[in-house]
Structure formats: structure tokens, C-alpha cells
Amino acid sequence: MNAPQQIEAGTLAVLWQLSARAREAQNEETLGFVIVNESLSLVPYRQAAWWRARAPVPGAVAAVSGLPQSDPGAPYVQWLGQVCRVLERRSIDADAASRQAQNQTQTQTQTQAPDAAAAAGAAPRMWPQALTADGLPEALAADWNDWWPTHALWVPLGDRDGRSLGGVVFAREQPWTQLDEALLAELARVWSHALAAFAPRASWLERAKLTLRAGKHRRRALAALVLALVVPVPLTVLAPAEVTAKDPFVVRAPLDGVIDRLFAQPNQRVEAGAPLFALDSTTLASRYALANKNYATAQEEYRQTAQLAVTDDKDRLDMALRKGKLDESAIELDYTARELARVRVNAPRAGVAVFSDPNDWNGKAVSIGEKVMLLADPASVELTAYVPVADNVDVVPGATLTLYPKSSPLAAYDARIDTVAYRAEPTPEGVVAYRVKATFAGAVKPPLGVMGTARIHGRWVPVAYYLLRRPLATIRQWLGW
């Protein structure tokens, strides 16, 4: 290809103006309008269309000259899209041939002039291609005269990495000159630069692929990756945890009844003998009054029978029956009195009352032996963690863990596992987990009731096993091997 003829100053001014308009475009729609409509001031043509090869709508005619918006369903737009796909494939093949020729000769650079590239036997990279109906497949060439004039020019667009961004096709009755191709080739570089600014950013995966191209960088990266995968790390698991009382005293309901009053408040320190709660005594008081009345009646009947028995043998026989009834009434009265005395529950030892909201207990019916609250020693605490079944890493007694309280993000407490439940049970949150008990190692212990996350430390494993443990377990369950 020969060098283009002398370019006039006016043509250069128009070229500069179109380049500035392309760079100032705020979006792809504005840029497409500039490409297919305003390029007419530089190169005469009858029709022009811009075909997009990449996102957001890859493989679509994005702009057509003379139209505010292209209709994807229009027959002309559909035919034009098929033509552009064929022309793009030819541009990619020509570019690949040019690269191969440059690598073989090693005498040309990417900035070579088009005539030098042609002399080397390879098509110029990203250079416009003039064509007629004979240059298309027969199925597309049959409709050429229905849509286009005789001569067309395909101007490919590409980014710096050689990836296709699509292209612009122009059509007119006169053949295309070398000057037209040179001017549009220069504009194509400006359009490609502007389109690259609107293109989405490459993902980390795409950037990694570009970094790990064949060569020493790939080998070094793969070696570093393999080395990192075999580095031993402790197998850890996170589990919800709570600071609980160690060996607390369980305060239970002494008998069936309804809680009438709570004297202690949650987390309140109480002394030995202090009242904790009381049951409703209405029923027991009535039973005690009735038992007391029955006892008095039986006592009076026994006294009268004893007086008559002095003179009457028959009354002497009834005296034993009255005595038994009196003893029965006395036992009933004593039992009722002792039950009435148990209505008020006192603290058997000093500690902190641990229970839920008092409003949840006032007026609640309880059964004998039902737990109402705990009496805990604030200085004697332990850690209770719940390890989900899916996260179990063979936690055994003697292993270490670290508690990270939610209320103190900068604090951490070390502990050593004492017991691990052999059977998983549902937690209040509905998660099936193993209960783990641990004793704090340091002298400083967290307050009772603190909640947080426990990191349980297991055995040492390679990084690859640490990362793939859960996926492999899921795949194994799914495949059944």
C-alpha cells in the first residue's frame, strides 16, 4: 500500500475537531452518534454504522447514521450485524497473521507504516479494509444491492492489548482512496481510545491471567502457589461461646404452685438466707386452716370420749378410734404447716442470682423440682462453646481456644478445653452443635454472662487442606464416597 497523498490543512483541522469531539463524549451513545454522523465532514459517504463487539450488548449494531437509535429487530440491522461479524473475524485473522509475520522476521515493530507491513507479506494491523459484494459470503452478498451502494469500507476498532472492540462500516458509490483509509485509520485509533475509557474494568481474574502469561513469571507464581499450599497452619474453627458459672447451685421450686413474687433481681448478689422468691400461699393457707379445724374437732371428740370411757365400756372401745383420728389430723396439720413454710424460698448460700426477666416468672405456674434460677459465684466461671457439627475439627479435651468477647473487641481470653459432649444437641438457635466446656488459663477472667466467639485450635494441617476441607466434605456427601 502506497503512502497517502498530501493532506490539506482544512482536512487536518476537521480531523482534529472530530478527535476532540470523540474524547469529550460523555457516554457511548454520544460517541456512537459522533462516529456515524459527524465523520461525514471528513470523509464523504452515504451510510455508516457502528458495531459493538463487547459489553454491555456484545455483537450488536449500536448506532446507524441518520437514525437516533437502531432497532435490533429491523431486517437491515440484522443483516448489517451478520456482515460485521464476518468482517471482524477477517480483521482478527489478518491481525494474527501480522503478528506471526512480525515474530518470524523480527525486523518490524508494532508502529510500522502500512506499506512496510505489506512489504513483509502481512496485512497492516487494525487497518481499514475496502470491500464490495464479492468479498462477502454468498448468502450475505445476495442482499448487498438492497441495502448498500457499491463500495464499503470496514474500519476495525481494538484496544491496546489487541482485543477487538468492534468496528465501523461506511458505504458509498465511489471507491475508497488511500487518503480516506488513512484518515479513518487515524480516527479509529481515537475512537478505540475513547471506547476503552467506557469499557468495564478488568476483573481480578482477567488481570491475573495477563500477569501469568507463559514465561518465568508464570513458573514463579506457580512455584509460590504450590509452596504456599503446603505451609502448615493450625486448623481452627469459630464457635459461639458464653461465660457461664462453674458448679452453680440450682434453686428449684419446692412444690407445685404459682410464683407470687421475686425478691431478687437478675445478676443481683445475695447473701445466705436472703429471700429469693415466694409461691402463692392462698391454697396452702386454706388447707392449713382446714387441717387446723379438723385437728381441733378431733381433739375435742377424743377428750369427750375419754371422759365417758371412765364409766362406760362401750365408750372405752370408741376411745381408740378417736385417738387414731386425732393422730391423723395432727399429721395432716403438721404436713400442711411444713408445706406452708416452704412457700418462701431463701438462698442456701451466697452468690449471684442468675435467671431471666422477672416478668417472665411472676404468675408462672411451676412444678416441684423445676429450675427457677441459679446461684453462681462470680469468681468461679468457665467457658461454654457450641461447635456446629459441620465445623467439628476433632476437638478433644486439652486443646486450647481463645475467646473474643463481643462487648470488648480489643480483649481476648485463653482457655483450655475440659470436656466435649459426645453427642450433638440442638442449641436455642436451632443449630445442632457439640457443647464444649473450658477453663480459663489466666488469672484475669471475663465477667459472668459475657458472650462472644471462641476460636478453637486444632491440629496442624497444610493450607490446601485448610481451604478445601469444607468443599471436599460437601462433595463427598453429595457423591457418596
UniProtKB/TrEMBL annotation:
Where is the segment annotated Disordered? Answer: 95-123
The alphabetized UniProt keywords are: Coiled coil, Membrane, Transmembrane, Transmembrane helix
Task: Please state where this protein is localized.
Answer: Cell envelope
One cellular-component annotation, GO: cell envelope
Composition bias (Low complexity) maps to 97-123
Name the record gives this protein: Secretion protein HylD
Signal peptide feature range: none
Q: Does the keyword Transmembrane helix apply?
A: yes
TM ranges are 221-241
